[in-house]
Amino acid sequence: xxxxxxxxxxxxAFVLLASAVFGPLALAQAVTLSxxxxxxxxxxxxxxxxxxxxxxxxxxxxxxxxxxxxxxxLEVGGQRQxxxxxxxxxxxxxxxxxxxxxxxxxxADAQGHFYTQGLINSRPVQFLVDTGATSIGMGVSDAERIxxxxxxxxxxxxxxxxxxxxxxxxxxxxxxxxxxxxFDIEAIVTxxxxxxxxxxxxxxxxxxxxxxxxxxxxxxxx
Length: 222
Description:
This protein has helices spanning 3-22, 140-145, 201-204; strands at residues 29-37, 40-45, 51-53, 58-59, 62-68, 71-76, 79-84, 90-92, 103-107, 115-120, 123-129, 136-139, 154-160, 163-177, 180-190, 197-199, 207-212, 215-220. With 222 residues, the protein is mainly β.
């Protein structure tokens, strides 16, 4: 066998090995079922605009297997997930980036709100930026879903539209948006049902914030 032929074989073997080792990492995606349109699932993948996807079709590598009522069975890279409308986003695969970035760019929706998907302690959540909130805020259901031991935190009184309720102040090990990760962030968990996790100032003050029309840019300070 010639040297050139051996080199070609080695290159092919390297490509196959790289695909086997790194391929699964490239499947990292945060997926939300935002609604149903007939038999189509309205998918939000990695913060995209909702896309109606019929059973058998795919969007950004996410394939819809079946739909029924307000649920859909999805497949990404051989992994299947059952999602229900209103559920928090699920993360399929493992993140490939290291979390050492320092710049986040968010786009507003038609109402001027900034929604984004992210991770708390490596578990997926859906955030709503709230510059009026002192801390990251979430309901008990999200806290339990991502495994927070919130009742070991400090009991605090939280004001709501219906009066004062007891919540829990705690520290989050890490909060990550895109490839930007920060650590040791204060959060308040309340018994009030919340459709999103509020991304408040305990997180936002770690960044230099710039608002430009429908975009918000966060530059990491520390």
